[in-house]
Amino acid sequence: MPTATSQAQQSPRQPVIAVVGLSDRPDRASNEVSAYMQRHGYRIVGINPRHAGSMVLGELCYASLREAQQALSASGERLDIVNCFRRAEDIPPIVDEAIAVDASCVWMQLGIVNEAAAAKARAAGLQVIMDRCIKIEHAMGITHGVL
Question: In 60-92, which positions are buried (b, 16+ CB within 10 angstroms) versus exposed (e)?
Answer without folding.
Answer: ebbebbebbbeebeeeeebbbbbbbbbebeebe
